[in-house]
Write a structure and sequence with these properties.
mainly alpha; globular
């Protein structure tokens, strides 16, 4: 696929994503959730009263990146729930572009088709879970965007070794701590990827990455430092929310139940709470789920092929990228698995699995499209021509993804009793 075609397709995805996240934003969702009301109060204090928090100690603790971005819109548009929701929509749309960037860097590093990054952005754009949180005005929507930028720049750094990429990867890694509680898991995943990268490098090449690694960790630490100092001065705040909902002694059965529920939320049965989901709907629908299974199988196969390839920076970057991708979803299911005293599975607590989860259905879809493009694909008629089959299937996929998202959000979910105002 040419660069021009990828650009036009990405533009179409972003336009569709913007429509899903902005259309009727003032009216849908209906009502005012207490978390949104408190966010509006806090953003107003930042915008107009000189309040400059590093962390919100009240409300069981809140990170502040979203609140500062909402405050900017409050200054431009005035204080309103619409402006708060619009800030969330902007973060959601930016997350689609960031997903493309991260998926493309992972594809480039691991030898997958770069065009699959457009499909990853498409699946995220039509992900019901992402649409919901892009329209609410909650801080969790910042998490996928910032962590995708961290992953994308780290992927670039692993491949090319540019100091700017290492610096930006570190800055966005540190910024993730200011997004949402589950963002604390990102350093664990990136440390895994970096460990695989260094171990896979030939011994003679390892000293050359010491300086870039120092730059990465220093940049991350610098951005995290204000929040880290705040937690150092008040350590109870760091654990407050986790202590409220987490596992206690003698609750092994609850933990097992939650772990199984969390494991099934991607493909089988999702969050039961109608405020944030169509009760029981998994994160991936039937089509995306089947494609994701194919994409996962292909990813495992390619990882095995890279493991057997000659040693060097290219191989090390590929193995690190695939290790990061394969560990991503299991690690980001941990927050909802551990929250045994709250609704499980929880889309909010598992929101960190986005956007890299969408790489799997994207790779599966790309394999299917490539098969349809073959001149003599087994079992397919000679007409239409391979190129026409490919274009038709790609167009159908775009329509299905956006149509399903619009139906689920504006018709099915909006009609639920919990979304109605008496």
């Amino acid at each position: 696929m040419s660069k021009a075609v990828r650009t036009w397709l990405l533009a179409a995805v972003l336009l569709g994503a913007a429509w899903l996240r902005v259309w009727r934003l003032a009216a849908v969702p209906a009502g005012l959730h207490y978390d949104i009301a408190s966010n509006a109060i806090l953003a107003g204090q930042i915008a107009f009263e000189g309040y400059r928090p590093v962390f919100i100690d009240a409300y069981s603790g809140r990170e502040v990146l979203f609140l500062y971005s909402a405050a900017l819109l409050f200054r431009a548009l005035g204080s309103s729930i619409f402006a708060l929701r619009l800030a969330g929509a902007f973060w959601g749309i930016a997350g689609i572009a960031a997903c493309y960037f991260a998926a493309r860097q992972l594809a480039r590093a691991s030898g997958h088709a770069r065009a699959s990054a457009v499909l990853a952005a498409l699946f995220l754009a039509g992900c019901f879970m992402h649409v919901v949180f892009s329209r609410f005005g909650l801080r969790v929507v910042t998490l996928p965007t910032v962590q995708a930028l961290a992953v994308g720049w780290l992927g670039c750094a692993l491949q090319r070794g540019h100091w700017r990429a290492w610096l930006l990867a570190g800055l966005f890694t540190g910024l993730t701590a200011h997004t949402y509680l589950a963002g604390r898991f990102l350093p664990v995943l990136l440390l895994l990827a970096l460990t695989v990268f260094v171990v896979a490098l030939p011994r003679a090449q390892r000293p050359a990455v010491f300086g870039p690694l120092v730059l990465f960790f220093a940049a991350a630490a610098a951005v995290f430092a204000p929040l880290g100092l705040h937690f150092w001065q008040q350590p109870a705040l760091f654990w407050e929310r986790a202590a409220q909902v987490g596992v206690r002694a003698g609750e092994g059965a609850l933990l097992l139940r939650n772990t199984l529920a969390a494991a099934g939320m991607v493909l089988l049965e999702g969050e039961p709470y109608s405020r944030y989901n169509i009760p029981g709907q998994p994160v991936l629908g039937a089509l995306a789920g089947l494609l994701a299974i194919g994409g996962l199988a292909h990813t495992l196969l390619r990882a095995a092929q890279w493991h057997a390839s000659p040693a060097g920076r290219v191989r090390a970057a590929a193995l690190a990228s695939e290790a990061l991708l394969l560990a991503w979803v299991p690690v980001y299911l941990i927050p909802t698995a551990l929250a045994v005293h709250e609704i499980t599975p929880s889309n909010t607590r598992a929101f960190g699995m986005l956007p890299l989860l969408m790489v799997f259905p994207a790779r599966g879809a790309w394999l299917l499209l490539q098969w349809l493009r073959q001149p003599h694909a087994q079992g397919l008629p000679k007409w239409p021509a391979p190129r026409q089959r490919w274009l038709g299937a790609a167009a159908l996929l775009f329509v299905l993804v956006f149509a399903q998202a619009a139906r689920d959000y504006f018709y099915v979910w909006q009609a639920l009793p919990a979304q109605q105002l008496d």
